[in-house]
Amino acid sequence: MGEEYGLLAIDLGTSGAKASIVTLDGDCVGWAFEAVPLELVGRDGAEQNPNLWWAAINRAAGRLIAKEILPKNHILGICSSSMGEETVPVDRNGRPLMNALNWMDQRGGPYIRKQLKGWINPFGTGYGLLNLLKWLRYTGGIPSPSGKDPAGHIAYIRDELPEIYLKTHKFLNSLDFINLRLTGEYVATYDSILPLWVTDNRDLKRIRFHSGLLSSLGIDREKLPDPVPATQVIGNLRIKVAQRWGLGKNIPVIAGSVDTSAATIGSGAVTDFDPCLTIGTSSYITAHVPFKKTDLMNNMASFPGAVEGKYLLMNNQTSAGGNLSFIADNIVYHKDSLLQEEKKPDLYKVFDAIVQKVPAGSNGLLYTPWIFGERSPVDDHFIRGSINNLSMKNNREDIIRSVFEGVAFNSRWLLEGVTGFLKNQCNTIRVVGGGAVSDAWCQIYADILNRRIHQIEAPMKANARGAAFIGAVGIKAMDFDVVPQKVGIRKVYEPDPGLRQLYDDRYLSFRQFYTRTKGIYKRMNRDLAS
Questions:
Q1: Dihedral sign for Cα atoms in the order 301, 305, 307, 309
Q2: What pLDDT score was predicted for residue 342?
Q3: 202-214 burial, b if ≥16 CB within 10 A, otherwise e?
Q4: What pLDDT does 123 receive?
Q5: pLDDT at 372
Q6: How far apart are CA 124 and CA 137, in angstroms?
Q7: How far apart are CA 292 and CA 513, in angstroms?
Q8: Which of 202, 60, 42 lies closest to 134, judged by CA?
């Protein structure tokens, strides 16, 4: 172990911050986690305190480095990954002016729709044909009408909190905020700045802000950090931070990437058209491709990622593992008058055991996982989760399995668009993220998607592994083309042909349920658009 070298990888997700030491061979030899709370504000707000992000990173990194898993002088650099669509307004001293708006926050929806309203309304965006064509040409995507991206966040701050907007020196993504605290530098990466939808992404060698897009959104250019490639060394770790963590001087900090890019690289999927499915709080299917392309009908496109010279197809569904957290915290072990003193077990292990006992099809139940609206395969912030076909014969175990199946049905819907986009059947899919730890869920995915599933070794650590690989490329300690050799496969799951008819029928019902109820949800939740 003493002759091994590695990097410190920081991974910030919705649930908290992880610090990992990853060797140049891709082995995560140590990690520490610190939770960060999510604050739901009113009906459609979601916030986190950026200072709590940084405090959690400090505790996790300090505790991990103190273990001296690798000699401290064998830590070659620091690279981070983070959630992709947070917005933190900071002042000239880098201090947050308010809580960060989380990727689930949709309070900016009315403001962004008003900003971009047009006479002709293609695909129900409300933006107008000229706006739509302009955005697709330069960026490959469009600001979400739901407001669940930095374009909507900044519109909300500008129009609802003008005093905050005026005081803002820079609007930062969570990754940018981490890098600011690590180095003192205000920078964004090509993928962290992406969901603001103001960069011209047509040439990966010349990604830059587009003045017309900035003008259309009403955002001042000087309030945004300059974008750099994921592999760029942006500076050295600040001396005070290095001293606090017990590291030496001149530790390089590499820009890093958002979680979609990091997880894909950490899964080993760096070859063109090799798909990766990430099952975390949200879920997404990704694949590197050699072209910029947009499929507006299926809400997907390829955008700048972390691998030089490649675009990354990203197709994201809002809630995946978040549904299990909801069931665990709000239903099974909700601290109400019925349950106040019971100690909460490791429910995710319990869930895994339960779903293996319940037959495929959940004894007739069908669950829809849209507990916070949806963005893909449909961008519809009105729809909500549901348990359907419930009868006196069902029990809690049936409901739990139906949640696992419902999330996988939504992923199958995503996959249909992905295969058309890639012109590739994606017969084998790499799976990472917290949900990929579940053997039962991996098998459910194989059966519902009708695809071979490769469960990656240490799937929860894919983001950290990917960040470390990006950092290693940045300091020229390795190249991306060796990444697949450094990522092991823990287990392969084959689809059960005996379940094909059952799951095909249930998937048809899943799709029909959306078509036939979307109008009801819109009527019930229409005040969200006000």
A1: positive
A2: 44
A3: eebeebebbeebb
A4: 58
A5: 80
A6: 19
A7: 33
A8: 202
The helix, strand and coil proportions of the chain, stated in percent and rounded to the nearest 5, come to 40, 20, 35
Say if CB 76 and CB 477 are below 8 A apart: yes
Residue environment code for 404-441, b if the CB has 16+ CB neighbours within 10 A, otherwise e: bbbbbbbbbbbbebbbebbeeebeebbbbbbbbbbebb
The C-alpha angle with vertex 301 and arms to 283 and 254, in degrees rounded to 5, equals 70
Could you tell me if residue 186 is left (phi over 0), alpha (psi between -120 and 50 degrees) or otherwise beta? beta
Nearest to 465 by CA among 438, 433, 513: 433
Tell me the three state secondary structure of residue 3: coil
Burial of 175 (0-12, 13-18, 19+ CB in 10 A): buried
The one-letter amino acid code at 82 reads S
55, 15 in Cβ contact below 8 A?
no
pTM > 0.70: yes or no? yes
Supply the pLDDT for residue 275: 96
What is the tens place of the pLDDT at every residue in 272-321?
999 999 998 788 899 999 999 999 888 889 999 999 999 999 887 877 77
Q: Pairing between strand 252-258 and 233-236?
A: antiparallel
CB-CB neighbours of 529 under 10 Å: 14
Rounded to whole angstroms, the Cα distance separating 299 from 245 reads: 43
H or E segment and range at residue 302: strand 300-304
**Token pair listed for 318:** 């809002």
What residues contact 386, with CB distance under 8 A and at least 6 apart? 367, 368, 513, 517
Q: Is the N-terminal amide bond of 37 cis, ω within 30° of 0?
A: no
Which parts of the chain register pLDDT below 50? 1, 334, 336-344, 529-530
**Residue 86, φ and ψ in degrees, nearest 5:** -100, 160
Task: Look at residue 401 and give its three-state secondary structure.
Answer: helix
Residue owning tokens 């990444």: 483
CA separation for the pair 236, 8 (Å, rounded):
13
What is the identity of the amino acid at 392? M
Sheet (strand 75-82) strand order: 28-35, 16-23, 6-12, 75-82, 252-258, 233-236
Mind listing the pLDDT tens digit for each residue in 327-369?
Answer: 777 766 545 443 344 444 566 788 889 999 999 999 999 999 9
